[in-house]
Specification:
The protein is an alpha+beta fold. It is built from 2 helices and 8 strands, in the order E-E-H-E-E-E-E-E-E-H.
Length: 152
């Protein structure tokens, strides 16, 4: 059963091209994983793979629409999914309307267990990116876990 989840929208205090460039290379995601947790995680320009509780989970960029959208697909995950990040202009030069869409093949039990958690997770990512763009640490994040200068 295909499940579609759309995050909330938030205005991020960065130009669309700046956000796009931060997400376009999967190696950039490694900086957000604490050093002591990076074992078993590999990344190149198009893919990132990790071993989580004995399962190989991978994500691959399937399409890049410069400065507007990046589409990700599963690459060895336990279920099929796609994620689209949208970087839309707000009409202001240094602001972006940011949102995320998830489409996943979840059976009824998985949908019942994960549906609200996935919605909450997407919304937290959007809120977190908006907070970081304004120099604030996202709610519930321990700043000591991230590289110096993160959130500034």
């Amino acid at each position: 059963m295909r499940t579609e989840i759309k995050s909330k929208h938030a205005v991020v205090s960065k130009a669309p091209y700046m956000l796009y460039m931060a997400f376009v290379d999967m190696r950039n995601f490694l900086q957000f994983v604490p050093e002591d947790k990076r074992q078993g995680i590999t990344a190149d320009y198009d893919t990132i793979t990790a071993v989580v509780q004995g399962f190989n989970i991978g994500v691959r960029i399937s399409e890049r629409v410069p400065y507007s959208r990046i589409d990700f697909v599963d690459n060895g995950a336990p279920f099929n999914f796609t994620v689209s990040m949208h970087f839309d202009s707000t009409g202001e030069p240094d602001k972006t309307d940011f949102s995320i869409e998830l489409s996943a093949d979840l059976n009824l039990m998985m949908k019942m267990m994960l549906g609200s958690k996935l919605q909450e997770g997407l919304d937290r990512m959007v809120d977190g990116l908006a907070a970081v763009s304004e120099g604030r640490m996202p709610e519930g994040i321990d700043p000591s876990m991230y590289p110096e200068g993160f959130g500034k």
